Amino acid sequence: MKKILIKISLILGLSLSSIAQSAPIKSIEILGLNAISRGTVLSYLPVEAGDDYNKKTSAQIIRALYKTHFFKDIEVSQADQVLKIKLQENPHIKYVELLNYS
Length: 102
Hints:
By secondary structure, the protein is α+β, with helices and mostly antiparallel strands. It has helices at 2-20, 38-44, 55-67, and strands at residues 23-24, 27-31, 52-53, 71-79, 82-89.
């Protein structure tokens, strides 16, 4: 009987701790954009305002944005129900000059 109570307590404790670490996203703030639009970044995000944020969500966001190959550094955090995504874009080619060597 004692073992059963310990197992139930452990299961409840783990499930409550995962719920406590999850917080709703009220708004999304994107920092560090130069050439890429906010709308483009939002279209690649696997979350939106109103969704819950946790460690798993953070990893999904980072993976989704790295798959675009637009960014060389991505930081994700949440404070006061505001999801903050700090980005550093990869350099862009401004022009290509072709010279005729014939």
